[in-house]
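for ur thesis appendix - Sigma-54-dependent Fis family transcriptional regulator. copy paste whatever u need, i formatted it the way the template wanted (i think)
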Amino acid sequence: MRGQERERGARDERRGLERLIGHSRAITRVIEQVRHVASTRATVLIEGEAGTGKGLVARAIHESGPRRGAAFERIRLEALPPSDVESELFGNEREAPGEDARGGRFEASDGGTLYLDEIGEAPAAVQVKLLRAIQDHTFERVGGTRTLKSDVRLIAGTRRDLAAEVESGRFREELHYRLGGVKVRVPPLRERREDIPLLVESFLRELNRRHGRRVTRITRGALDRLAAHVWPGNVRELENVVEGMVILARGRRALDLSDLPEWLRGTGSQTPRLDVTVGMTVEEAERQLIAATLRDTGHDKPRAAAMLGIGLRTLYRKIKQHGIR
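the 3d part is after this line
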């Protein structure tokens, strides 16, 4: 029986690590770090640019560890209004007679893993409760007085420099210490270009299944063009581009250069240059950069945000702030 359990555990670990695709030195280091930390109870901070696959690393840690059979909960703090973050994490006691109390993600992931995506977006009040939940495994629901316990392994992800956020006063120093005891840095795609063929091959298999297509492969010319691109949106942007190519492909055939988006085929206009001059304010330079990026992406805001290295909510805020149309 123990031998069967060990075999099953090894199989689950392989399945978790298979999410991390590539043979480059950069991604191999990440895989080794996941192996080392997965079997522990340590809180892990995953750092990396938007679109690099921090969520995949978090799930690989969960699936490679002893909690693999329990819940894995993921919450994107950036996608929530700040006023909703606390109740989403810790739950809410009934606000009126007849209403049911609602548990939060800490209760839902009891015995398992909770992944907090973009932890740098956590409001100050939530940071205080998070610190206590990490230290004592206790919390109260919003509007409640009963202390609850939850055995949760916490993993956090961020594209921000949290040390700089601490210096600016936007992030609690004690929470940073608690989260950052074990750090895993996920490299941007430009640091692991040799992994692009394997990533594209994996995407083709999954996208064929998802969309009922019959793409057989991708030609060397098209693959070389993909590998030469900088990919500011990282693996997520690459997958989105390949998905668009697969969806538009008809019949059983290979993808070639003609299937690439125009901006990747090199037939479109050159990348626009900004006229930034000495004496120009930072605000004006930022406005020009955001406006030019929006024009270059055809006002595709998710892609523009990925290219700029900021969150979509931040981009919308800056568009309004600078009066960009």
